[in-house]
Fold:
Amino acid sequence: METFWKIKEVAALVQVSVGTIYRYVEHGEIPFHKLNKALRFKPSEIENWMESRKAGLAVAANEKPEGELLDETKESGAKG
Structure:
């Protein structure tokens, strides 16, 4: 059976404040469970969540800002 992590453990792992984890919970941005009114987190769900966030950040880092795309279009039009 998988054990649950407490909010302080998750905050330390993710390297954010406890308050940020509460905000993630409030906005539904992080998987969590309520056990007797206490927030608890499954390690496997948190690890998957962290991986999905890394993947999303990598995709965002590789995207060009809209302005750059427009500038390239202007340059290619001027050459032709």
Q: What stands out?
A: The mean pLDDT is 83. Strands lie at 33-35, 38-40.
